[in-house]
């Protein structure tokens, strides 16, 4: 029998629970559920109770909880969730970045053989163990920033063997970091240059040879594809996604980054999320708003490429759900600082604190189809972060400079 361990943390100036908020649409800061002078009682790995500190104190003492007495000002939030990253990769693309800033476009670099293919070459050269280690290092950096759940994509292997190497590396990394890594298969990132055959032939091979192994080895339950002129067209992807759906995978899409089309595919296939959307027009915004697909803004990619942000304000006003992710990758989004990026998106798109924080907590959880995290409430995983301040508004105000100084993952403090 497992012994039950209780931990009681507080007093907390403000616990912003992110509970009691709708999954879709605009949010006002007044809607935030903020418990003043709060206490959080943890039972093993889960949140047991949250409420006013002195109300919970007698109960916590009577059940023999370990009392964690916070000294100073703290604001508690659920552990942050980054629902879109590519942090399993080899090499660096500092050269691409310099070229882009010298005036050469992303599409031109890709067509000239640079871009993603450069990372594919570097990633193929790295061993499984090396890739796992690089992924652990980046995950731990994210965890220190308060990001307790991180989605990680493959997509720099682009052959049956090399994609599987990446996916196994991410699985190994997950066993060696305290953060939770959620894996997506992005074998449909770009068409591999060294494949003999059409885009459709490649996708058919992946679906026949990789999909079954994903399930056998429990490597991933999410299938992602980049729908774009230089990657895969809406037409290319139909039978690939059909097969994925039939096998029970969740679908997610890199959509409308440079041209529209991807979000329509996402909605047609009832994808969990449609990510990017920088090029989305009113039509796509309406389509997403009427669907259950979560729109994911990737401000780090806009900053990395120097292009417009996802129309986050319009999406929310139309009634869509909006998550915000870092897209951390070696090409278009090398910064990898989710809180900074989300805060800055807020200033450009005029998002409330509630909308920014929702985008990196419970709405990001929904973008990963996870119903056990992203809010501070009974029964949820005890992933908690504490910012050294007495006012939650300081978090976006300081635009990422204010980081959490105390982090709990599954009820255990990460030192
Ligand atoms: Zn991406």
From TrEMBL:
It comes from the Bacteria. Residues 76-405 form the Amidohydrolase-related domain. It is an enzyme of class 3 (hydrolase). One of its GO terms (molecular function) is imidazolonepropionase activity. Its EC number is 3.5.2.7. Pathway: Amino-acid degradation. SUPFAM superfamilies: Composite domain of metallo-dependent hydrolases, Metallo-dependent hydrolases. Coiled coil: none annotated. InterPro entries: Amidohydro-rel, HutI, Metal-dep_hydrolase_composite, Metal_Hydrolase. Keywords: Histidine metabolism, Hydrolase, Iron, Metal-binding, Zinc. NCBIfam families: hutI (TIGR01224). This is Imidazolonepropionase. The lineage of its organism: Bacteria, Pseudomonadati, Bacteroidota, Cytophagia, Cytophagales.
């Amino acid at each position: 029998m497992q012994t039950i361990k209780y931990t009681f943390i507080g007093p907390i100036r403000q616990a912003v629970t992110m509970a009691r908020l709708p999954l879709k649409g605009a949010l006002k800061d007044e809607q935030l559920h903020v418990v003043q002078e709060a206490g959080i009682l943890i039972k093993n790995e889960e949140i047991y109770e949250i409420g006013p500190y002195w109300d919970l104190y007698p109960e916590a003492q009577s059940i023999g909880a370990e009392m964690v007495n916070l000294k100073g000002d703290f604001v508690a939030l659920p552990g942050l969730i980054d629902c879109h990253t590519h942090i399993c990769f080899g090499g660096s693309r500092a050269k691409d970045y310099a070229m882009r800033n010298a005036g050469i476009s992303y599409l031109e670099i890709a067509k000239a053989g640079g871009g993603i293919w450069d990372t594919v070459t570097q990633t193929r050269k790295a061993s499984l163990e090396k890739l796992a280690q690089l992924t652990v290092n980046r995950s731990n950096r994210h965890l220190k920033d308060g990001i307790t759940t991180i989605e990680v994509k493959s997509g720099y292997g682009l052959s049956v063997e090399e994609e599987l190497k990446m996916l196994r590396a991410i699985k190994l990394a997950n066993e060696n970091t305290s953060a939770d890594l959620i894996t997506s298969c992005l074998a449909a990132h770009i068409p591999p240059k060294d494949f003999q055959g059409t885009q459709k032939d490649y996708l058919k091979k992946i679906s026949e040879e990789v999909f079954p192994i994903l399930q056998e080895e429990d490597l991933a339950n999410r299938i992602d594809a980049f729908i774009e002129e230089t990657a895969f067209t809406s037409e290319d992807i139909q039978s690939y996604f059909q097969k994925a759906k039939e096998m029970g995978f969740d679908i997610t899409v890199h959509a409308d980054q440079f041209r529209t089309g991807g979000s329509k595919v996402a909605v047609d296939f009832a994808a969990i999320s449609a990510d990017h959307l920088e090029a989305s027009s009113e039509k796509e915004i309406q389509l997403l708003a009427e669907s259950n697909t979560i729109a994911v803004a990737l401000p780090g990619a806009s900053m990395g490429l120097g292009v417009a942000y996802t129309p986050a304000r319009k999406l929310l006003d139309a009634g869509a759900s909006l998550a915000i992710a870092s897209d951390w990758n070696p090409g278009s989004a090398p910064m990898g600082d989710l809180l900074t990026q989300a805060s800055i998106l807020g200033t450009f798109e005029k998002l409330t604190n509630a909308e920014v924080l929702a985008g990196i907590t419970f709405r990001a959880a929904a973008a990963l189809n996870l119903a056990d995290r992203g809010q501070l409430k009974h029964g949820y995983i005890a992933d908690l972060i504490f910012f050294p301040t007495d006012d939650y508004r300081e978090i976006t105000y300081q635009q990422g400079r204010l980081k959490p100084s105390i982090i709990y993952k599954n009820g255990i403090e990460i030192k």
